[in-house]
Amino acid sequence: MELGPVIQAVGLSLLCATAAVLICLVPAVMIALLLARRSFVGKALVEMAVMLPVVVPPVVTGYLLLVMLGRRGWLGPALDAMGLSIAFTWRGAALAQAVVAMPFLVLTLRVAFQAVDRDIEKAAQTEGASRWTVFWKITLPLAWQGLAAGCALAFARALGEFGATIIIAGNIRGQTRTLPLAIYSSLNEPGAEAQTVGLVCVAVALSFAALVLSRVLSGKDRPKPMLRLLRRGNGNGG
User: Is the pTM of this model over 0.90?
Assistant: First the structure.
């Protein structure tokens, strides 16, 4: 088994998945906060638009990105004039992964923001704190577990993205061939069974690690505060 293609694919996948999370982080926080705290006309449409990348075939997402950002697309010439090529580059792969991963981050963050005690925020505003100060110093710290868990979940989804990536970024070795694309290419190469197995094992291991991290960060595997107090009390009483 050649280690070079495997290392290239793993490194590129980690790079693109990390960039994807960073790309969708700010929009996801804004959308999640809006959905968690506001009631407005058209909220259902916004919710459906957020979930659309989950139910639409990834190749459709990739095609739409290519239509908008390709060199002959709506925004392609303007991007080329600025020296910022998206199509058939690792940036295109990261963008495609960001689009399909953002719903997972939005959903996780929305739940986290809804769990924040509004009375604490209102008390801070009563003391003269601005909305930005309340959000930055109270809301976000209280929702940090949801934010971290959502980022890990989005990272795991980005790692596994295939359809949208191959449409907007292609399958260029060493440039856009992420781990799923490397597995696909290896399956079509005679005598590359060992390499395929190695790539699959690495993909499963990375995805599993990201899911475990998401679960740990969400606090599901941590003892609840009351249980910790009871255990401590029983220990003192013994």
Answer: no
